[in-house]
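Worked example

This section walks through a single chain of length 503. The input is the sequence exactly as stored; nothing has been trimmed or padded.
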Amino acid sequence: MPLRTDFIKHLLSLLGQVEHMRAWRLLKQSAVIFGLAAVYFIAGKLGLMLAFVHASATAVWPPAGISLAVLLLLGYRAWPGIALGAFLVNLTTEGTVATSLGIATGNTLEAVLGAYLVNRFANGSQAFDRARTVFKFAGLAALLSTTVSPTFGVTSLALGGFANWANYGSIWSTWWLGDIAGDIIVAPLVMLWGVNLRCRWNFQQTLEAMSLLLSIALIGLVTFVGLLPSGIKEQSLTFLCIPTLVWAAFRFGQREAATASFLFSAMAIWGTLVGSGPFASDSPHQTLLMLQMYMTVITVTALALAAVVAERKRFEMELVYLVNHDPLTELASRRRFHQELDRYLAEAKRYGTQGALLYIDLDGFKSVNDTFGHQTGDTFLTDLSLALKGRLRDTDVLARMGGDEFAVILPHTDGSSAQVLAAQLLDVIRHCPVPLGAVPFSISASIGIALFPEHGLTGDELLAHADAAMYEAKAKGRNHSRIYRPDYDSRLVDDGSQDDGSS
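Given that input, the structure is written out below as tokens.
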């Protein structure tokens, strides 16, 4: 009876935890939906303040970019927030419940379609990592999916009697261009900051970022707000912001390039509305259309350039990694090993420190490849590398020299400590498990030890002496280690430098 009571209590506790998790998940999802609706509503009202051709159509529509970015970052489950925000914006602007529902449906479907196309064809939330996906994003999300909202919206307004069918084309094109600008200028800003909010800048980079921000402010004010010296035409400064965008793309990245484009757009709109800048004219509507097309083009250019720079940096980092690491085991490569060895030898010369070099050769490993196949052999070498690395210190350097040969640099290590570690490594090798599914086999190793500066002050000299000691260990029956002695060189010559065919 007590056992049954305890079980029931435990079961009720688990059910309570499940219900608590469900309630917490529902609360979080509700917060996202209502938060998105509030942001959409505020951004929509600000955008509609610039509506000239129709009360519900504007060339500046940030909610399109916000909703697209949120769906790409959080998933399609956030769509109710878009629908609610769009419905409230239009219900409080012009029209009826029916027309507001029609417009909200178009806004929501546009965001969902844009997110689907970007996820399917443009690498989703990572669309700005590569130049080709930047252009796919611009074509699929900004040009194609943005035809949905104006079609639903203008048709709903015309059917409800709130728009003249004769003005359908002009209202539709304004609506479309506003959504394009929102997707290209606002969506990258939200997505890139949403993926990586932290700024990992050192002091010098922080100063450069402040200089970049100051340049954006000055150029924006001069170009778009009218702070010009007398006699200079505003049109001649139209492309003055491009070098700053190139600066942001080359020196920082996609996120900063998107931020610079957004700041220029904000200042350009402000200046244009007050009648300043190269796009100012007697028609505010035409002015905003021209301005948005201009900012859209330079934003896509800046994002593509930043993506190209990021691609090149990643490629360079991959090349450096491949040069410095063995592709199979991911241990240090032979080149990286020589660099580290030269560094520790230079330290030994300058400060009088000591160290040891271990040269490890697996005994009879060739038979494993011949009998069980190279895939089994490669898997064993990878597992063995992890086991050996786990036995070493962080300051030790383990490298694969080729085939079944490894080498270890042991800084600040004397001869006796090196012998103790060599014995431990031999034990690790003997007990390294065979790959899953393979027929059991056993592997041993022979280890040669050379000390520095005692046995040499150059990398080639130390490796040659460690190699000679390793062959002496093999001659003693394998599964042994030996510290180098000068007489090992003559024995190696007398034996004809014969290998056991293990590699």
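What to look for: The chain has three domains: 1-197, 202-324, 334-494.
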